[in-house]
Amino acid sequence: MVVPTDLAGPSPLDPLVLLPVPPSLPPNPTSDLESLLASFETALASQPDIPLPVLTAQMRLINRNAHILLNAARHNTSLARDELDKADLELRGVEYELGKVREETKRCEEYEAGYRDLQLPSVEDFLAEAGEEAVGALPPKDDEGYEHALTLARLEHELAQIKSREDEIAQLTKQRDAVIRSNKDIKMKFQTSDTYLADFARTAGHMLTKIESVAAAKPATK
């Protein structure tokens, strides 16, 4: 007997394919086939003990029970296939999430904190410069989270210092720009004054030349 590799769909010519599956299934009719065949052989060979219509009715009953069991098997196979597809989909989702978790875990394991490359002040300098509020917020030294809290406090303190220096630089930059603008204004005024003085010198020179010319042309008085 060749075992089928897949389950074929029901034939559209099957008259019982659309019958609903009863709550309680009939027994397997295989055990009744031998006695039914023996009764048929007896009925065909000689006078039967059981009338032929009774045997045909029994045959129809066995056939109907076989169809009911077949429909139940198809229905249960369909349900099992749906459950299998659902489980396969859930498994794929779990495998996808597991892959993401593994990627994030590997990324966390390979992560190197960038603050380690910063040139932070020593712990002693930090404790000396930081205020009492920042130092008092640290957990006890024997606490396992002390080192982590101390590192965060040092980073926050350094960030505050950097922001303060940036504010000072911005203020000095504004003052420098104001001085540059003032120097430009003074230079422009100086250039304007120099132009006025040059014009005044030329005008005075022309007037002096004219006066000298008039004085030279005037006759001498007796």
UniProtKB/TrEMBL annotation:
Localization per Swiss-Prot or TrEMBL: Nucleus
A Pfam family recorded for this sequence: FmiP_Thoc5
UniProt-recorded name of the protein: Fms-interacting protein-domain-containing protein
Similarity section: Belongs to the THOC5 family.
Single biological process term from Gene Ontology: mRNA export from nucleus
Taxonomic lineage of the native organism: Eukaryota, Fungi, Dikarya, Basidiomycota, Agaricomycotina
Cellular-component GO terms for this entry: THO complex part of transcription export complex
Stored InterPro entries: THO_Thoc5
